[in-house]
Design brief:
It comes from Streptomyces javensis. With 346 residues, this protein is an alpha/beta fold. It has two domains: 2-153 and 296-344, Medium-chain alcohol dehydrogenases, catalytic domain (Quinone Oxidoreductase, Chain A, domain 1), CATH 3.90.180.10; 156-291, NAD(P)-binding Rossmann-like Domain (Rossmann fold, 3-Layer(aba) Sandwich). The chain has ten helices and 18 strands. The protein has helices at 39-46, 96-99, 145-148, 154-165, 184-194, 206-215, 227-234, 250-259, 298-309, 325-333, and strands at 2-6, 14-17, 28-37, 58-59, 64-71, 83-86, 116-117, 120-121, 128-131, 137-139, 174-178, 198-203, 219-222, 240-245, 260-268, 289-291, 317-321, 340-344. The longest helix has 12 residues, at 154-165. The structure holds (1R)-1-phenylethane-1,2-diol and zinc ion (2 copies). (1R)-1-phenylethane-1,2-diol (FEH) binds at residues 38, 40, 115, 119, 153, 157, 295.
Length: 346
């Protein structure tokens, strides 16, 4: 089968022939219809030797949708033909967090040599994906695969970040989304669909502001010297009750702090490498709360799929054939990707 294989650290992955897996025991074989491309794939590709606990070679792809095509003899809970999206964070499977379906916060994560499909285990940038059991599979009904695949990471990560802030986002509140890309545009939609807050969006690209508008933002603006003032004015003058930073650079963190209301909450999702100094006395608003949400739970993935199937979520995607993965990766790396990039086996 065709697969995008990572064979050496610091070297670009390449389309290659790989053995089509055969499911044993509880394993389930998924015929891949779509696999999303994530900025974290770039971090894996660029990792120097020893930086990650993963053993090479493996197939990339941790944001996958398709249908069940074969079952191991002990597989249960799915049937051949079921269309599914694959819950991406695979933990140890036996700690309290994994038992609760929060594999994203597995207590033994640092002891594992992999973190999921495409993350040290063969992933879904391929024609087939082998999953250990039916446990990570969430039914998608007739949702198109290129809409479903991004829900397993871009959608779930945004949904999990919003879920942590939802208590602060009742009537009359303001949420600010910094970075309207593959995750941010879904966060805008999830905020509109699941909270009562007004939603303000910020980006550095004009076309991202248009995406924010299409996603339902009440206001969208470019990152400028006076952006904080503009956002505060749109929040009724008191500042934002919550800020979701999908970029995470020093500049965006600085903007986030400058627009937060006292008692406000900041969720930093983007891995831009920026840092904050937390001190008292200091510049952070009184009552400031910070979270660093990571991916999401299996139960939340089912919630994201339900939202999408209700029509409340529409993923802006750019489709590429799997054979064009190197071009898609380069486009993402150059910041030219619009919405979420999805690879389709060709
Ligand atoms: C996956 C693996 C490791 C770090 C970050 C990620 C994100 O793409 C998950 O949303
Ligand atoms: Zn990812
Ligand atoms: Zn665990």
């Amino acid at each position: 089968m065709r697969a995008l294989r990572l064979t050496a650290w610091g070297e670009a992955p390449a389309p290659a022939e790989a053995e089509r897996p055969v499911p044993h025991g509880t394993e389930v074989l998924v015929r891949v219809e779509a696999a999303g491309l994530c900025r974290s794939d770039l971090h894996v590709i660029d990792a120097p030797p020893g930086a990650l606990p993963y053993r090479l070679p493996f197939t990339l792809g941790h944001e996958v949708a398709g249908w069940v095509t074969a079952l191991g003899p002990d597989a249960a809970g799915v049937a051949v033909g079921d269309r599914v999206v694959v819950y991406g964070p695979w933990g140890c499977g036996s700690c309290a967090r994994c038992a609760a379906g929060s594999d994203n916060y597995c207590d033994r994560r640092d002891t594992l040599a992999w973190h999921g499909a495409g993350l040290g285990r063969d992933g879904g940038m391929a024609e087939y994906l082998l999953v250990p059991s039916a446990r990570p599979l969430v039914p998608i009904g007739d949702l198109p695969a290129d809409q479903a695949a991004p829900l397993s990471d871009a959608g779930l990560t945004s949904y999990h970040a919003v879920s942590g802030l939802r208590p602060a986002l009742g009537e009359g509140t303001t949420a600010v989304v910094i970075g309207v890309g593959g995750l941010g545009h879904l966060a805008v939609q999830i905020l509109r669909a699941t909270t009562e807050s007004r939603v303000l969006a910020v980006d550095v690209r004009e076309d991202a502001l248009a995406l924010a508008d299409r996603s339902g933002a009440d206001f969208a603006t470019l990152m400028r010297p006076d952006t904080a003032r503009a956002l505060r004015a749109r929040s009724g003058g008191v500042g934002a009750d919550a800020v979701l930073d999908f970029v995470g650079t020093a500049q965006t963190l600085e903007l986030a702090i400058s627009v937060l209301r006292p008692g406000g909450e900041l969720a930093v999702v983007g891995s831009g490498g920026g840092s904050l100094t937390v001190s008292k006395p200091g510049v952070l608003p009184a009552g400031f709360r910070l979270s660093l949400p990571f991916w999401g739970t299996r139960h939340e993935l089912a919630g994201v799929v339900t939202l999408a199937r209700s029509g409340a979520l529409r993923v802006e995607t750019e489709r590429f054939p799997l054979s064009a993965a190197p071009e898609a990766i380069d486009r993402l790396r150059r910041g030219a990707a619009r919405g979420r990039t999805v690879l389709v086996p060709d």
